[in-house]
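Hey, can you fold this?
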Amino acid sequence: MSETNSSPYIANTANQPYSFYVSPKYSGCYRIGGNYGLSISIVKKPNWFHRKMMALCLGWEWQDASPL
């Protein structure tokens, strides 16, 4: 059943100004499987002990984010 008087979809129904999303600045990521594997980006860089234990116990390597 379709209505003939239905209004088109309007994204801003509350008549509020649009806001833009700013993505966070990532400090780096943990990688599993090299360049083409899974990478998990995080905002705060873990301390050296945490990075070393993740590498030794789980095999996850840390890579710093490249500056833009």
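Oh, and this one too while you're at it.
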Amino acid sequence: MSEAKAHILAFAALSVPISATSVVISATDAGGVALGLAIVFFAGLGGWISGGIVVRYARLAERKKREEIILSR
């Protein structure tokens, strides 16, 4: 799987709980503070997941580069 596909999959996976949380907050008339906290939480979660994807694919690219250097000798 490519890095772009991993980001798309992560976005799709996070959109479901974000939508469900927004609907629940709106249905219960919880107010703007609860919605703001939910947005901040999911933004942080999305950033953490996205950072993990970037780090993983950077490590894979680095490993592939090292293998190519070793095999070229």
